[in-house]
Amino acid sequence: MDESLPAGRPPGPGAPPPVVTDRDHLPPWISPRAEPGRETLADWGERVGAYLLDALLVLALLVGGGLALSRVAPAVIGVWIITVLLCYSPLCTAWWGGSPGKLAQGMRVARSGDGRPLTYGRALCRHVAHLVLHFTPLLGQIDYLWPLWDEPFQQCLHDKVVGSVVVVRG
Length: 170
Hints:
- The protein is mostly helical.
- It contains 6 helices and 3 strands; from the N terminus they run βαααβαααβ.
- Helices cover 48% and strands 7% of the residues.
- The longest helix is centred in the middle third of the chain and has 29 residues, at 44-72.
- The two termini are 31 Å apart.
- It is a multi-pass membrane protein.
């Protein structure tokens, strides 16, 4: 808006409207800018960093558990893999607000409407949606890139399924 106009007066005919972004319409519990004590939306790079850390942790669990089980009960390795894949993220998200990778980055997963933690059921649905998208050609890549253009919440598709957002604690 033109600085020479009196406050509260709209621009004249033909003037461009003031720029209003979807970020100006966030719920009150999310701050559009970093402020002490307030949560802001996690950016894409922060989310990727947390994902890579979690991928390393899950790999360590799968390999370590698989090696231990191969000596004792090789038949249950498949059960171990399924258990890790279905429990790691949803349990951590429901109990602590996020996976170890997110928590290490100062992030948490919350309900987009009110900021409350996800229940185990909602966290499990979010994770299953993530796995389905991840193992579907092209959709996995689209899911990871979706926050780059999503407004106002910068959500992945698996976040949209359950109405969750990833925020950084202020």
